[in-house]
Design brief:
Structural class: alpha+beta
Largest sheet: 8 strands, mixed
Pfam families: Acetyltransf_3 (PF13302)
Strand order of the largest sheet: 1-2-3-4-5-6-8-7
Oligomer: single chain
Shape: globular
Number of helices: 5
Protein name: GNAT family N-acetyltransferase
Order of helices and strands: EEHHHEEEHEHEE
Radius of gyration: 16 Å
Amino acid sequence: MRDRLETSSGLVLRRWKAEDVQAVMTAFTDPLIRGQYIEPVDSVQAAERWITAHAEHWAADYAYSFAVVDGGGLVLGQVRVGPVDRRHATGWVSYWTTATARGQGVASRACRAGARWAFDDAELFRLELGHRVNNPASCGVARAAGFAVEGRQRQKLEYDGVRVDVELHARLATDPEPASL
């Protein structure tokens, strides 16, 4: 499986590297990213563990995480496919972008490229993702990347004592490619 993808829009998706420690630490200072993970990534050691865990997941065929970088190597975000269920050829997709990359279509383009990789390289058939219903930007990313809405999971997540609904999206290997951004 390829571990580096170059998109026609100039983005590169590549595996996380040890040299990304500072970029990971910087990304996790953002409350929007920090709030998505159980363990804090607030030190060099924590960032190293985070990168190592992603490499271990890749090696175990459990999950595949790509750093999304620009042509100069600046980390703009992440696209992840995992956990992967080989029996059913399915995977869960997640993504985030740094504050400076938001609103520029980076997440949509990266998610679309990651989905194509999951179908072609990882040989998955169905990809799913979910977002809080109070996050319209994430919904826009999912739709632009070709993920169709499938339903609502009521009060699935809890943040600061408040339960929130999640909208579920999915994309199949047989679905048409989304229009280019």
